[in-house]
Structure prediction request, 172 residues.
Amino acid sequence: MKQIERRNFLRESNLIWRVDDRLIHGQVIIGWCEQLPIRLLVVCDDQIATTDWEKELLLMAAPAKLPTRILSTGETAEQIEDWIARDVIVMILIKSPAVLKKLVDLGCEIQTVNVGGIHFQENRKEFLPYLFLSNEDVEIFKQLMAKGIRFECQDLPNAPVYDLQKLIEKKQ
Prediction:
């Protein structure tokens, strides 16, 4: 399988931030981790980080050869500088925009976020076939955009990229 060139996805740093409510699953593993030279996969989730059986389940889904860590938002925020200094590509998976906001509130400087799948639930509007947002999600994304964070919707590395800000403006 041909790897996508690093420079296409890593404009600002060696960290790939991805919002995906399924966290570790086939699309992330095959579509992203095998296409990009990712050297560390991180799941950032306060609940899962403190629940042994959930942690174990997610770790079983991760590729055996790819180091994977499940961390709380606080632990993730503490590790950012170390990951940047090591200059290895790290994909950080986040379940929701609320978790991302918590990281920003903890002082994480994030410039670009890949928005993968946020799937259908009651009271969510469809923005893309893989992106359904509640009013609360939209408000959080707007707050983060106001801080200068760019959101690129893209389910796979070779798929079209959509600017979330433009998608939200269209629906308003």
Observations:
- Strands lie at 15-19, 38-44, 68-71, 89-94, 112-115, 125-128, 131-133, 150-153, 162-163.
- The helical segments are 6-9, 26-33, 46-49, 52-61, 73-86, 97-105, 135-146, 164-171.
- The first strand starts at residue 15 and ends at 19.
- The chain has one domain: 13-171.
